Amino acid sequence: MAEAARKLGVAEQPLYREAPNNIEAEQALLGAILVNNDAFYRVSDFLKPAHFYEPLHRRIFEVAAELIRMGKIATPITLKTFLPAEEKVGDMTVAQYVVRLAVEAVTVVNATDYGRAIYDLATRRALITVGEDMVNIAYDAPVDMSPSDQIEDAERRLFELAETGRYDGGFESFNDAVKTASTWPMPPICATAICRASPPACATSTAAWAACNLPT
Description:
elongated; disordered C terminus; 216 residues; DNAb Helicase, Chain A; single chain; mainly alpha
């Protein structure tokens, strides 16, 4: 809840390295949807509740999506029943916060851009999680997990992440996906011994990366 209210208060210096997020973009998109439900259809093909960084924003988006898909109107009034009444967002109740989102909505024209920003940041967070897990497992691997098993597990998780595709419906190359995670200091997969094909061929597309790892 503190993250949701961050825009309204004085920004504090973080004591830790915060995961990539854009609370303001989440607020702007939710406000646009509450003002004009048609904005939801601009992002519904690729954006899911789990892509939101702030838990409250996930719930607001989830409830609004359910109402809109049922042919109902999603407004601060219709959402109020489905949101926690006792929780606070700064000095505001959740209901007051949702009204504030709608009031401060500027335009619905940029809804797609807000959605893409939220989606890209969620992908970066997922990449960081995979990278952190790889490091932790390498430091303290289970007895029955060999280094080759660790590599195969990393390959699988990275490929699954790349295979989710982009918001425009196509597939994002693995090399491009890794480049977006600037906070994860790990070289592209094609620069390591994991890929058994030549780096140029592997870096061209996700399909090429998968093909180069097929058993010979």
